[in-house]
Amino acid sequence: MNHTIRPQRPNLDPAVAAFLDAGPQRLLIDGTWRAASSGETFQTRDPATGALLAEVARATEADVDAAVTAASRALRAPEWADMTPAARGALLWRIADLIEAHADELAQLESLDQGKAWRTSRFGEIPAAINQFRYYSGWPTKILGQTIPTSLSRTPPGKKVFAYTVREPVGVVAAIVPWNSPLLMASMKLAPALAAGCTVVLKPAEDTPLTALRLGQLLVEAGVPDGVVNIVTGYGAEAGSALAAHPGVAKITFTGSTVVGKQLAASTGADLRRLTLELGGKSPSIVMPDADLDAAVEGISRGIFDNGGQVCVASARVYAHRDVYDRLVAGMASYGSALRLGHGLDTEADLGPLVSARQAERVDDFIREGAADGIEVVTGGRREGPLGTFFEPTVLTGVREDMRIMREEIFGPVAAVVPFDDLDEVLGWANDTRYGLAASVWTEGLSSAHRIASRLQSGTVWINCHSFLGPELPKGGHKESGWGYENGSQGLENYLETKTVVALL
Q1: What is the pTM (predicted TM-score) of this model?
Q2: What is Dmax (Cα atoms) for the chain?
Q3: Which of 50, 74, 107, 319 ranks highest by number of CB atoms within 10 Å?
């Protein structure tokens, strides 16, 4: 494998350069941009080159408290509480329009800060973020209660019971998002929360805070009332923990590791606060002997190599029927070897660096451990680039189900391919995991496709595709992959409470 890596920083959009040169990035609290109360900052750097991108405010517990207080005030303020559903929907549409107008700028920031390839940022994730706001802009006018006919025996003579339900926002939402798809993940939480009438304190990942901050500027420009959306940047152990523990937060929505998700579940259980978790995954792909092999090679390869495998639903475990196993392995190896590594803003690059040297080292540890255990590296398996942050697309064979590389989420461009002979056997392997986020099955047999889908223990099952996601498609995990759902009407429900009103007339 011979990848040409050009990690230089290309020419920037003037708006991006101005944003980066504006000085330390501040917190958005109650409609104003302010420094952290401590005055401290932290750095965010280009993972391809190590170049400093920006100094960012390091929020303290006091800053988090100020943000939650602002969100609590805004929840009841007439500017937000009395905004009509139609006006709230129009506001979400304006936000989408502004993201669209600044799509090139946001895509550059995303590629610089996270490392992902330009085509993934500009033509995948930024449009997906826009679609989140467009989709949920239609929902505020469709949040409906019910009138309920009753048969209560205690109704006094001559009186009538009138009963109905009202849907209300759950309250202040703590939205904690990961570093792999920063703007999209923020949008997936902000759009339904705002549609429901909630207020939000958004905590972006410390590795990738920049697009969240630029989005905050666009939210202000769109006319979001002061305090409705607050953005606190900082470390998870500081700002994130303070936000999750704050008594003024009614609901936490978190996307990230299963380890942290379990900690949140334990800490919020005592006071029964609402919690939505999208956690880790180790998604299987099952390739049947009648599959369109060319489509399977491309779909599975994209599912594991796109964004450097830093995707929660990545097709990390590939089970191929023995009749097609060799051809699938060869096809995936050829696909991965042809991908070009380069700076995220290099338009000729297919894959950028991983988000940090720390993450690249983690992926490398898995490969070295596997190699010592007899795994064959068919292609890839090496760190590249001046900082060692690039990782070659990797295809592994000779793996066993009990190996760590088959049990734990790697979050890198690493696919393990295993042959199978019997359908019941492979379904047992696919389901033998603590995760249950996503899976795919590849077959030209319609009946067998749906039978296999029904037996896979997973929140999403794709047939003859992988990583097909949209705001209208509910997305959630079974087992240790999460609680609750995002997207669709189910995603809106996360941010609503039902109140029953009973009147004696």
Answers
A1: 0.95
A2: 87
A3: 107
